[in-house]
Amino acid sequence: MAALWGASWPWGRVIAQAMPPLAAASLRFLIASVALLLWMGWSGRLKSLRTLGSREWLGLLNTSAFGIFGYSIFFLLALKLVPAGKASMVVALNPVLILILASLLFHEPVNKKMSLGVILAVSGALYALSAGSISSLLPGQSGMGEWLLLGCALCWVSYTLIGRTVLTTVDALTAASMSTLIGAVLLSISSLGIEGISAWSSLIHAPSQAWYSVLALGLGSTALAFAWYMHGVKSLGATSAGAYLALVPLFGVLLSSLWLKEALNPSLIGGGLLAISGMALMSWGRQTLHSKNDTVAKNSELQLDQCKQAKPHRYKTARLKTGR
User: Fold this and answer.
1) pLDDT digits (tens, 9 = 90+) for 96-135
2) What residue spans define the domains of the chain?
3) CA distance 2 to 8
């Protein structure tokens, strides 16, 4: 999942330079929608759509508005202005925001190891993004591209947290499929209204590399990775699933350097190693937390069993004393 999303940045950079942004985003998610709907049909889950109520559809609409529609617009507009490797580093903001908001809204348990791990991962990513000068990322030192990337981060965090609520009643594949389909419709309507039909006509003349990138984004970075991510949010929780996004910038930088020949400097390597160290600490903290919870649960069950065994004994003793 992290590798596929890391690759989405160089793919997106190629698309942003060759295609109208809204039309390209629409095409990406239309391709992904077809793939996900076929997946649903193969797994026999299309029938489950009949059981979704208005509350579930509203939740899916909200996830689409943030995670598909809003994110895609910020994503491609930013990649018109910012190199793919640098742009991918904004993903490092996601785990911190998710950690804070998931703890406040969903009361997800977070221990010191997990918190420190996220801080290390994000610090490493920001160090790489700023080429060793984090102060260059402060307000007033960044341009429109950086602000658009911040919009990406805010949309993604909203998508993750809303998705956590949606997944209490909707399975991961259905949620990913319907969110993608709704998002594709919203993007298509916006593209026709803003860019016009001429934008879609121009797609025919786009270079083959851009078309390959659209297919890769639609099938790999969207259909497959989104379904995996939603499953991870449900299984691991929003904080733990979101923490793995810290690896996305590392893949983004490496793949951008490999495919687009973007510069790879020591700060990118050092920041990447720091991010990986943070991820390892995050995983250790999560294992420690689960181990502690399992111990508490086992102790509670043991105490309950002891109480059940003690009650018949006390009742028998009382009968002997009363002679009944």
Assistant:
1) 787 778 788 878 888 888 889 888 878 887 787 777 777 6
2) 2-292
3) 10
The DSSP result for 258-316, as a single string, is HHH-----HHHHHHHHHHHHHHHHHHHHHHHHHHHHHHHHHHHHHHHHHHHHHHHHHHH
Residue 148 tokens, joined? 């658009």
DSSP 56-84: HHHHHHHHIIIIIIIHHHHHHHHHTTS-H
Separation of alpha carbons 258 and 263, rounded Å: 9
C-alpha to C-alpha distance for 67 and 179, rounded to whole angstroms:
8
How many whole angstroms separate alpha carbon 242 and alpha carbon 247? Answer: 10
Q: Which amino acid appears at position 246 of this protein?
A: A
Residue type present at position 297:
A
The answer to whether residues 40 and 173 touch, using CB atoms and an 8 Å cutoff, is: yes
User: 16 Cβ partners below 8 Å, 6+ apart?
Assistant: 24, 76, 77, 79, 80
Stretch 32-57: mean pLDDT? 92
pLDDT at 238 (0 to 100):
59
Q: Which of 294, 283, 261, 237 is nearest to 113 (CA)?
A: 283
Cβ neighbours of residue 287 closer than 8 Å, sequence gap 6 or more? none
Distance of alpha carbon 232 from alpha carbon 225, whole angstroms: 10
Q: How many residues are present in the chain?
A: 324
Residue keyed to tokens 């997106």:
12
| pTM as predicted | 0.79
